[in-house]
Amino acid sequence: MLTIETIPQNVLIELAFSLDPADIARLAQTCKTFFQIYSSNELWRSKTHHDFGNLFAVYHILTTSGLELDPALGAKFANEPSNWRQYYIEKNNAVNGTDAQNNALLHEGEEEYIKAQKDLQSFQDSQDVTILSRVASKLVWILDVFPGHAGCYHLLGFILYILNRLEEAMMLLDFGRTVDPEYEPIDDLEEEISKILNGYKGSEEEEPLIKDHELTPKLAEVLSEIFETFDQDHDGALNNQELGNFIFTTNGSHPPPQFLVQIAQRFGGTERYWLTKDGFLAFYLEQTLDDPTETRSDLSVHGYDGQTLQKMMQE
């Protein structure tokens, strides 16, 4: 016989997701079991995430990925509330205003979303990372008012994709899929990121290239061996001729001297702008995060199996 005591707790929790706070409060007064469940801080935490998204997690993901968000967002989302029921009620009242208020906010939110898209386009020209932080802040503010805006999650995921924070990007895309499973741009970006992740994580046949956003020890060892092969004078740096020889052997091009200097300046060089081993590894870290297949191809050119990272037998 089915009784209140025998109803699975997960069913009662799912029921709460479809009720407003007043209905839950009335249910909680009907029996001790309901009171214990519907007064639980964890239930209200889950209901908050279900109805409004987990902006506390979003904030943490973005800030730990190197973005400097609006300080006012930190005041709201850096720390979770101690009383989730109170937080939910206040949030619910703020989000669910009158029809006129909601329409005005919706119009404002869409305008801000369009501006965010344009700002991201400007980043392509300037490469100014502060633009990404500004856009991310704007998108989080929109989500604070419109929790179901899957486009914001898509753009946030794209920002982390630009920053090579691929696993974190996938988390945000997953949040977006939760609010709108039919939003196709999320699927497209997730597919692209999955290809890259699979490329440097490796498979049963492939040695991984990246772990925790760094070169794996095995890949670093192989790249160091390649570096030492081209460091003909064994001074710990590739001068212009040595670096030029490496690039020509790798892809058949003859880069101009200024390009070689720029590589050393960007990734790590001596006072004479010769690329150091650390700079060489830093270059390959960036390349591998961007395109692991290119790194595997480079290894093959230099006598290593691009999948296993083992040195191939010379005929």
UniProtKB/TrEMBL annotation:
Keywords: Calcium. Residues 218-253 form the EF-hand domain. Gene3D superfamilies: 1.20.1280.50, EF-hand. Pfam families: F-box-like. Residues 1-47 form the F-box domain. The keyword Cell inner membrane does not apply. SUPFAM superfamilies: EF-hand (SSF47473), F-box domain (SSF81383). The keyword Methyltransferase does not apply. GO terms for molecular function: calcium ion binding. It comes from the Eukaryota. Transmembrane segments: none annotated. This is EF-hand domain-containing protein. It comes from Umbelopsis ramanniana AG.
